[in-house]
Amino acid sequence: QAQWYDLVDVLRLHIDALEEDAGSYRTGLLLKVGRLAIEKTQDADLAIDSLNMVLEVEPNHGDALSGLADLHSSNGDWEQAAEMLQKALENVEGEQQSPLFIRLGDLYTKQLGREEEGIRFYEEALAESDSSDAIDALLQYYRRSGDTGQLEILLGLKLNLVVGLERAEALGELGLIRYEQGDYENAVTSLAEAQAARPDSLE
């Protein structure tokens, strides 16, 4: 790790020597120090200091906010991680929001124990893009709650994204839901399609 700390020292000396109006160049160097601290030296304090210096100049810098969220998560500081991600969300639009919503969903459901809020974030992610991660998280939730209407919708979305065994399993689950709902014609169709997608499953 010594050579990486040497590189960090060189970069920091260069940053200190820059004029105050160095702007994006200085920001880029600070982000590089932050990445080196995370990936090479595993120095969380150095990474946090570097990324916070970016935020002092650009309070809404997405990469710095996302990096700090990762660091707070690795330290088990879930509330701070969520706060950073929510700030990062304010500076992106459309499909770029989807991965941030998913990370927030994971934080709220798995770490903070606030499942209802987490589910809303997954739903927001799905509204922005057909995210398989969001679909799978919502499927787990609605399987537990027994909401077959939501399950049918989500499985329909999943079928647009998967092939092979995953497709066969989704079709099979969809067929069983439709059968339980009394939609026998579509149930038979889904189950037949599941069988065709996985012809070795004859039991």
Q: What's a quick, concise take on this entry?
A:
With 203 residues, the chain is mostly helical. The chain is 77% helix and 0% strand.
Q: What report would you give on this structure?
A:
- The chain has 203 residues and is mainly α.
- It contains 11 helices and no strands.
- Helix 3 (44-57) packs antiparallel against helix 4.
- The longest helix has 17 residues, at 164-180.
- The radius of gyration is 23 Å and the shape is elongated.
- The termini are far apart.
- The model has no long low-confidence stretch (mean pLDDT 91).
- Mass-distribution shape: elongated
Low-confidence runs of at least 5 consecutive residues: none
The helicity comes to over 70%
- Average pLDDT metric: 91
The topology string of helices and strands comes to: HHHHHHHHHHH
End-to-end separation in angstroms reads: 56 Å
Question: DSSP strand (E) fraction?
Answer: under 5%
Structural category is mainly alpha
Largest sheet: none
Radius of gyration: 23 Å
